Amino acid sequence: MATLVSFDEIRKNNLRSALLIGFFLVLMTLIGLAIGWVWDSLLFGAILTLIAASVYALIAYMQGRTLITKMVGARELTKNEFPHAYHAIEGMSLAAGIPTPKMYVIDTPALNAFATGRSPEDGAVVLTTGLIKTLNRQELEGVIAHELAHIRNYDIRVMMVAAVITGILLFLSQFLLRSMFFSGGRSRGGKGQAILLLVAIVLAILSPIIAEMIRLGISRKREYAADAGAAVITRYPPGLAGALRKIANDPKPAERIANQATNHLFISNPERKKTGFWARMFSTHPPIEERIKRLEMM
Fold it and tell me: Is 280 a domain residue?
């Protein structure tokens, strides 16, 4: 059954990736038209934006693992420094039936972890030093198995595409607003011109929100699926449940090593300490308490 679930998740994630890329191209065309209007050439704006976005997306996709690990300040995890973590990743990879991923560590007392890469062959697991030093063996194996489930199900590919799209949209929305500002607010006649101006303003304002909704749409359900996958890999759900309890009680989440483009990668949202309706509304992760409850029922 676990194998069937894995294949089904892979199929869904490939579809999600294709849909995200398709939506991304359409949105980039609209933003390019808006930028082109500001600079007096709709076609030029659309073509330039699509070319720039495509080149950036290709580079980010091919070098995503390296870019993301550098972005969060991760370094290679060595066997001599953390032998138990090194061997746990090797052992859990064998149990998951995937190649042993690249191993990285982030020097921070925060308790967190994430996986990245294009595929199981390009996968990487990143652990914080605080996580390695705080969790016991079964808890650490549970977290590692959770990240390996993301790799096995190709969640990492969707997550990387989402991170790339988020970064591009945030950059272009800011560029569009600045372009309109530095264009000097020149006056143009005609209803069509006014409509394009309105579209430009709406796209500039909504792009960050759209980017956030893209990440939300792929993040919450995959966390439950990865928790279930970890339970299958370790055959010991209490291990991950115990790890999540300690992570939930961590007084210093990894806020400084994450940002709006990478929050969704981590096993627990680095900004989870933020409270209020909007914080819960735009959280990229389901409540830890609910995840623990589901694990305890397995």
Answer: yes
Which residues contact residue 142 at a Cβ distance below 8 angstroms, ignoring those fewer than 6 apart? 230, 234, 236, 237, 239, 240, 241, 242, 243
> For residue range 180-230, what is the model confidence (pLDDT) as tens digits?
555 554 444 454 455 555 655 666 666 666 666 665 655 567 888 899 999
pTM exceeds cut of 0.90: no
Number of folded domains that form the chain: 1
Domain around 32: 2-70+154-296
Catalytic residue among 9, 147, 223, 271: 147
Please, are residues 130 and 230 in contact by the beta-carbon 8 Å criterion?
no
Q: Is the Cα torsion angle 22, 218, 274, 112 positive or negative in sign? A: negative
In this prediction, residue 3 carries a pLDDT of 43
Q: Please confirm, yes or no, whether 147 is among the known catalytic residues.
A: yes
Distance CA 55, CA 133 (A): 40
In a domain, residue 243? The reply is: yes
